[in-house]
Here is the input.
Amino acid sequence: DIDCSNGKAQILVNGGINYEWQYSNTLSDTHSANPTATPLQTTTYFVKVSSDNGCSLNDSIRINVLSKPDYEFNLPSAFTPNYDGKNDCFRVKDWGTIKEFSMYIFDRWGQKVFSSTNASNCWDGTFKGVNQPTGVYVYIIKANTLCGAVNKKGTVTLIR
Here is the structure.
């Protein structure tokens, strides 16, 4: 089983020398013993395995694609940018493949203190190189993921 945040599965087959897979549009290689499957919905893949003595066997594998509701995209409620290597940045984690992304963070007066269109970037608690004070900050995150559109608004506490 896979879900939309990890949209691929490695299929492993053995016992032959030639492999012919169906549904080639969601397999990395239709003649491989271990193709990567990237289905967008539950799919049954069929393979014909042939041996070196001319024998063949047909088999199948079903890859279930499970949906992941929006509420499972968790964000921390606080972070501590004290440079100890633990919880130093506020960021998106474990959202899988993100096609489009934007994150904005505002202070209590509505001034934008951080923005990014790269999901790998994180807010380190600074604005223009200056450490921001302990407090509650507002974030807005919009993303288009394999799981669908994500629109998150909330608060994060910066603790110094």
